[in-house]
UniProtKB/TrEMBL annotation:
Pfam families: Lactamase_B (PF00753). Signal peptide: none annotated. Transmembrane segments: none annotated. InterPro entries: Metallo-B-lactamas, NDM-1-like. This is MBL fold metallo-hydrolase. Residues 22-219 form the Metallo-beta-lactamase domain.
Amino acid sequence: MVLTKVTERIYFLENDKETDRPLLGYVKGDKYSLMVDAGNSRNHVEKFNDSIEKSNLRLPDYVAITHWHWDHTYGMNAVTGKTIACEITNERLKVMSKWQWTEEAMSKRLLTGEDIEFADINIRKEYKVLQDIKVIPADIVFKNDLEINLGGLVVILKNVIAPHSEDSVIVYVPEEKVVFIGDAYSIDFYDNYKYDSVKLQNFIKMLESLEFDTCFLGHSSPLKKTEIIECLKSEYKKISTNNDGKKISK
Ligand SMILES: [Zn+2]
């Protein structure tokens, strides 16, 4: 899999449904570069770094995390750059860093709802040896938002209200008119697959107010601003008419 170039400063490695690997972003400043999300394992990070080197780019100096879910964070121990997460994400990382990866502990977490079957299935597919899983907290932690100057290019990390998780962080690059939204657009897998209409409406409004051309999503192809807003508005229509606030598909 090769890196896709979007602009002179923006690249991405597409998502891989096989083991639920999310899209990984790359933002190139004059001085530093930033990776968006840490991937789901050391193997995923190695694949990303290989594609970076093949494109003659520098390995990331920073890694911005969009939310705590395993597929976006379990590669944190293998990345080259300093990892950056918002406070809420980091608290979840601290909790997960204490998790045991035995059959007993894993099935117990499914019973208590700490983890979900969808993650459990994909973790087993990604990791041949479950003991290889190593979860660590971030190097840099911020509250609400953070601005990073990569040299001639500013990146803004912002914790936003979104239906997927309360720690949803967007990575916005105003000058390049792109935004990485992780899974913020999606349902909450850890809250009975709920699609919260109020949070979704908030998220749509935030996107509408943001100036960008392209939006990068965690588990599907990039969309234009009009496409993502259209798509989310139609989802909003469905859940507000059904009024049960639930949706099964991703
Ligand atoms: Zn997620």
